[in-house]
Amino acid sequence: KMFFILFQVGKALSSAESLDHMLQTATRLVCEVVNAERIVILLKDAAGELVPRLTFQKSKGFVEGREVSISRTIASQVVRDKVSIITSDALQDPRFMQGLSIVQHNIRSALCVPLWEENNVYGAMYLDNLAKSYAFTKEDLELTTAIANLIAIRVKHEETAARLKEFAGRGFNRVL
Predict the structure, then answer these.
(1) Interval 110-125: pLDDT, tens
(2) What is the spatial distance between Cα 54 and Cα 114, in angstroms, rounded to a whole number?
(3) Which residues pair with 116 in a beta bridge?
(4) Is 83 helix (H, G, I), strand (E, B) or coil?
């Protein structure tokens, strides 16, 4: 099943007409196999701040709006340290005792992986389950890490295409 999901995301990576379409496909596929109530894709803006690009709630589907209540403590650490985090009970996890958002939103299980490729961190994929402790497995972490890597490749591709377009727009298209 994990191979099938990775195959589908890889196919979406190469065939989706936009980054948002690819993110939606990846999120839907993750939601089918991972016990997450919410999935949020965060991308860095021009200032380097994490901004929600896509939010999915199991009960509502894709939801609009930039203001999403997730653990900024976990997401920031993932991006800063370039490490994946899985916590079975965030409220009891000593790594996050200072995390106000974890207490405010009563986050039980959380899984967060960086979207990074080579030396560039583009953002993070954040999943949580507010009701259930031990909602995520090592296999869930491996799957979301692999999907996050595919997403990072697409984000890099989009950035490169935008730079080339800008470069060509400046009158350098003779070189291209």
Answers:
(1) 899 999 988 899 999 9
(2) 15
(3) 121
(4) coil
Sort 127 into a burial class: Cβ within 10 Å, 0-12 / 13-18 / 19+.
Answer: buried
For range 30-53, the mean pLDDT: 92
SS3 state at 92: coil
CB 93 within 8 A of CB 71: no
Sheet holding 38-44, edge to edge: 61-63, 50-57, 38-44, 120-129, 109-117, 85-87
Place of tokens 């993070």: 124
Asked whether the predicted pLDDT for residue 12 surpasses 80, the reply is no
DSSP state of 62: E
Q: Report whether 54 contacts 27 (CB < 8 A).
A: yes
Contacts 24+ apart (CB under 8 A), 114-117: 114/78, 114/79, 114/82, 114/83, 114/84, 114/148, 115/41, 115/43, 115/148, 115/149, 115/151, 115/152, 115/155, 116/82, 116/148, 116/149, 116/152, 117/149, 117/152, 117/153, 117/155, 117/156
| Residue found by looking up tokens 């995301």 in the block | 9
Whether pLDDT at 105 is above 70: no
What's the maximum distance between 2 C-alpha atoms anywhere in the chain? 60
Per-residue pLDDT at 76 exceeds 60: yes
Q: What tokens does 169 get? A: 């727009």
